[in-house]
Amino acid sequence: MRSVSRSRGLVLALAVAWVAPSAALAAEAGAEPEPAADEQAAPAPAAGLCVELGFKSAYMFRGSNLFSLDEVGAQRPVVNPLVSWAIGDTGLSLTYLGAFQLSDEGRGANRDGALDLEQDLILGYSLALPAGFSFQAAFTWLVWPFADQEVMGTGMPSVIEPLVGITWSGPLDVGLRVSYFHGVPDSLDFLRYAYVNPWLAKRLQLSPDVALLAGLGFGIKAWVNGDTNNMCDVQVSLEVPINLPHGFYLRPGVYFSWTNLDDPEDGPAFSFRDEVSAWGGLALGVVL
């Protein structure tokens, strides 16, 4: 894969665009075609806690490789601890999600540049509607408390992202999510875009304790600054949720994504190969 040279502003914009709404909404909606966010979260407990530890060979979100922004296909593994609390029968949930780089390559620069050591807090809501429909909403706060102020221009770079979604569950689960990604403070105003994400998913029950979950999603960003790089993305996922005794579960998976890259001003144009990535993952969790 060829390297992709990008401006500092776009680098951070891609880095902070994760997954967090996915962690809350996948659990509530029953299907999530996007990995980091959008990233493939644990099944929701009916009441109580769900604790998960996820591993992936690359930290991908909305077409961007967050630990290797200059090479979309690079493999730099990530661990994602997740704790989710379903608040009784209110439809509300509170989720913590972290992202920690496991490989040494680029770790210091990623930490200073608000790429590594990400901390997310998500307040989610789900409401069942007639005819197989359901409504979801989430408010996500993403923060990088260990970023370098001299590098980032602020001591606490963060993003807020309100999100709403609608899902229809039938032979094929179909959904639409709309969100607004907003960098805070105003010095990070280049981190702002609206995001529209239609998706579909199909679950096949292979046995009482083993299923096959396939997902397909498409995303469109409308950057506030008019950028066209990483404006469109496609996400494909194939997972095998496995129920284990005592509330434990495993979820191995393979994933694929594509995003558009603006051709460099000097040098050859990017090929399709430069714009795609494939990676694997495994999650272990327990519903308490």
Task: Walk me through the structure.
The structure is a single chain. By secondary structure, the chain is mainly beta. The chain has a single domain, classed as Porin. Helix content is 10%, strand content 49%. It contains four helices and 15 strands. It has a twelve-stranded antiparallel barrel with strand order 1-4-5-6-7-8-9-10-11-12-14-15. Strand 6 and strand 7 form a beta hairpin. The radius of gyration is 18 Å and the shape is globular. The protein starts with 7 loop residues before the first helix and ends with a strand. The N terminus is likely disordered.
Question: What are the key terms here?
Answer:
15 strands; mainly beta; 10% helix; disordered N terminus; twelve-stranded antiparallel beta barrel
Question: How does the SSE layout of this entry go?
Answer:
Blueprint: H1 8-16, H2 20-29, E1 48-56, E2 60-61, E3 64-65, E4 78-86, E5 92-101, H3 107-112, E6 118-128, E7 133-143, H4 149-152, E8 158-168, E9 173-184, E10 193-207, E11 210-223, E12 232-239, E13 242-243, E14 248-259, E15 276-287
Antiparallel strand pairs: 1-4, 1-15, 2-3, 4-5, 5-6, 6-7, 7-8, 8-9, 9-10, 10-11, 11-12, 12-14, 13-14, 14-15
Low-confidence regions: 1-40
End-to-end span in angstroms? 43 Å
Relative strand content = over 45%
Helix share of residues? Answer: 10-25%
Shape: globular
CATH architecture: Beta Barrel
The CATH superfamily name is: monomeric porin ompg
Output the strand order for the largest sheet: 1-4-5-6-7-8-9-10-11-12-14-15
Quickly give the structural class. Answer: mainly beta
- What is the total tally of β strands? 15
Query: Could you say how many structural domains there are in total?
Result: 1
Mean pLDDT: 84
**Secondary-structure element pattern, one letter each:** HHEEEEEHEEHEEEEEEEE
> What is the rounded Rg?
18 Å
What is the CATH topology classification name? Porin
CATH class: Mainly Beta
Biggest β-sheet description: 12 strands, antiparallel, barrel
Please tally the helical runs, counting DSSP H or I stretches of 4 or more residues: 4
